[in-house]
Amino acid sequence: RVPYYMPRERGRALGGVPELRDLPLPRGRYERLVALCGAAAGLPRHMGTHLGGLVISRRPLVELTPLQRSAKGRRIIQFDKRWVEELGLIKLDLLPLRTLGAVEEAVRAIRRREPGFDYDRIPLNDRPTYELLASGETVGAFQLESPAQRALQPRLQPENIEDVVASVAIIRPGPIKGDMVEPFLARRRGREPVTYLHPKLEPILAKTWGVVLFQEQVIEIATAIAGFTPGEADRLRRVMTHARSPAEMEEIGRHFIRRAREQGVDEEVARTIFSYIQGYASYGFCEAHAAAFGVTAYKTAYLLAHYPAEWYAAVLSLQPMGYYPPNTLCVEAMRRGIRVLPLDINESEVGFAAMPGAIRIGLRALKGLGEEAAAAIVEERRRNGPFRDLVDFACRMNRHDSLDRDRIADLIRAGAFDRLHPNRRATLWALDQALATARVAAAGDTSTGMPGLPAGWSPPAVADFPEAEKWAMERELLGIDVHRRHLMDMLRPVLAARGYRSAAEVKAMPAGEPVRVAGIPVRPHRPPTRSGRIVVFLSLEDETGLLDVTVFERIYQRDGRWIFTDPPVPLVVEGRAERRDGALAVVAERVFPLAAVLSALPARPLAHAHAVDEEKVGVVRYPVPAEPPPQPGASPRQGRPIVS
After folding, report:
1. Where are the domains positioned within the chain?
2. 520-549, pLDDT tens digit by residue?
3. Predicted model pTM
């Protein structure tokens, strides 16, 4: 995973990021590939249908534009979106949000116990919701769950819906590159006076504390400072919205400064003002968009504050969506006291289901099962009652083509039959016999009750899988393992004995303390910075929650090859705890794989974890370096995969 570079900057990637620099492939081939990419930049990658673009016209469109059928059979316009604008046609962008589907799911679940609940009447002044936002514990809330947002909220201390709208707008590449975040926070909290580079900016920026947050403000600035005509302002809007042409942005910048000087504005002031505008070439929100997102963000935070089980169940049911993977969402739910119950062939619904103090994993969570098969299982159970055993399940579900042998085997491996048959290995051994019985019964037109089956049928006697292997099966098939036990919890006795703190312990530490933590990296990313230097932000997940980590460029260049991996490699981070207005993060000084620590121990560490079978060690595989963890200042070497 390499940072995004504009076409003219792609050559920097070869020597600028450790992911490419450390690969053992011929450099000449990479250089040629980068050159070819630069030559192809700006050309269409493919012909496709706009995700949400809808063109409307008073006259039939066939009289104004050629039409054709898309690959999926829909009628589409042959002109692209830019040409549509030049033709003068009206294009609406309809933005679909899976979050709204999660809202519907959650509202249905809430109304089962509160029939009068009305999402549209959620109060916008709910104190517990603002307290939740101010705590930064917003994993699962729409637009407010990223590490940047979770760090922003304790510093902002939102008090009203306008604060939420501003927070949605400000954590965007445009305001960040325009250096708007720190001035906004300082002025919002009264720590510095609100100032304006030019008197004409005050009526435009007063409501946002003197900083540029919205696209409309950029248009107003261009008109007030540079005297842009509506046509020139619209051109600026299109350039800054799409960030497609740096050359075009530079050309319009020169035009802006020249026109501003003609309006009597000092050249340096004009350049500084345009630098704010230029940041929006990386996308900024229009105010209406930010307001719509802000209200939805607030209302999902309200659901999280008052109905966490229903909300997390809804978000988990509509995966993939949001910022975090299902396992992390389950960790957060459990941290709030919500139990995550395992997959169960007689209890699980199609999606995740909320119940008092708990969430049940849904059948659809099983990889490869699909909506149709999951719905068929639930419907059969509703019509004819719970399944008595594996043979009863096979006979009753025999007619469903979407549920083949492999899918049933996966259900067994994932623990769906554990309450009927606790021995998974024996149940798998008996699967072919059960399916054969079902085929015979179907050929004989036997009724659902299957009177010809032996009474009290049970699988053969055979040793079950070790608990560690069951954990690994569920992790592989469901993408969730914390309902059984978190990996870091298994390792905690060994880690604690060597000075490694949990996320919860680090959050209670004073600022400036040295820390050593271990966990699973979640969503590492490299957002744009005003300086252009690379800064990596990630969260470390353990059994107590998430801990945010900042990796500056020097450390990233040395240790970055371990950060962006697929699947993620459990990491050790050594550094210092830092606080800013209540928001805590660890500033990394060293980053390396946890397996490098485990492989150096004289005994198998997981064998000492309570209630975990020693064979667990043979299940979990990590890439580890071929030598001990690098010392500060040492250059990294290529690693090799081994079994810890």
Report:
1. 1-49, 53-93, 124-290, 379-478, 487-643
2. 999 888 877 767 788 889 999 999 999 999
3. 0.82
